[in-house]
Amino acid sequence: MNNRNSYVQNDVLNNLVLFVTLFVINLFLLYSGIINIIGLITDEFESLFIQLPKIILYFLPSVYLMLYFKNLYYKRISKIGAIVFTIVTTILLAFSLFLMIQNFRYFVNNYFSSYFNSYTPLDLILLIVILLSINIVIFVKAIKMKKDNYSDPLNPGTFSVYTKRRLVFILIIGVFSSFYLGLFVLDLSLISDVTRYPLEYVIFLGYILLPFINLIFYLMVDFTKKKSVIAYGIIGIIDVLYLIIFVFSLNSLEGFIYGTLNQALLLATYAISLPISYAVVGLILCVSIISVILNIKKFIKTNK
User: Distance between CA 52 and CA 36 in Å, rounded?
Assistant: First the structure.
């Protein structure tokens, strides 16, 4: 039996810490992947075979994290599911390595020119090694498994509190909120560039952080408890008010009207993310608000 007061034996706490750690690492990989997609679109797919291995390898950890999340919080992946997962992801890893070898000279030349320009083979090779090692472990365990349910010693307990609808919502919102959380962290280092528009700066950071806050509340909400549902409803109200404030700010504050602040904060995404980036965040918040309304209505109906 687990001792909840001991971090050594508290599997729930250890799983949460591990998941948060992996999420933070994946956060920056996902951000890099989306930036590379933007670069691919802006050069009209001229660099397709150069960008593709980076996009695949930066996005694959998100797929592994989704599997981990499903395994931990929803239900065990089946034996067949584990085998199919390892085969498909291994093919993608091999394909990425093949493209890197095909463009080896380009990657190496850019690496020696500047490590920080995102054309680096070392981080991609490291990702391939790590993900391939994980695949080997999963595949071997799945083959040896007698029962149909895949068992992971890191996740000895499963919390079947999420319906399929909730799981899909979490995974979709998780991808977008991760990107904007990465953008939020990056923009914290640019405060010296936006001192002329401190109010717009704070409003913008709050706006791109809200999807992640919504995700956290959605993960934590227990629809059987009144206080939890009320807290979730308050977040919905905050979303509505912030959307109104942000739309008003876009049309009244100088930093937003002339795009000066936008260009500094959106960085590489500026070329195609204005106003697309604002619209995506707004759409996420609108979906979250609708989710709050529907779930509160369901809670009221269930508890009549």
Answer: 9
Answer for the pair 104, 117: CB distance below 8 angstroms, yes or no: no
Token look-up 């349910």 returns: 149
**pLDDT, tens digit (0-9, with 9 covering 90-100), for 69-97:** 666 555 567 778 888 889 999 999 999 99
Q: What is the 3-state secondary structure (H, E, C) of 214-279?
A: HHHHHHHCCCCCHHHHHHHHHHHHHHHHHHHHHHHHHCCCHHHHCCHHHHHHHHHHHHHHCCHHHH
Determine the Cα–Cα distance for residues 22 and 3; give it in Å rounded to an integer: 24
Q: In whole angstroms, how far apart are CA 172 and each of 66, 69, 163, 195?
A: 10, 13, 14, 34
User: Residue 133: which H helix or E strand, with range?
Assistant: helix 121-144
Whole-structure pTM value: 0.68
DSSP, residue by residue, 158-207: ------HHHHHHHHHHHHHHHHHHHHHHHHGGGGGG-TT-HHHHHHHHHH
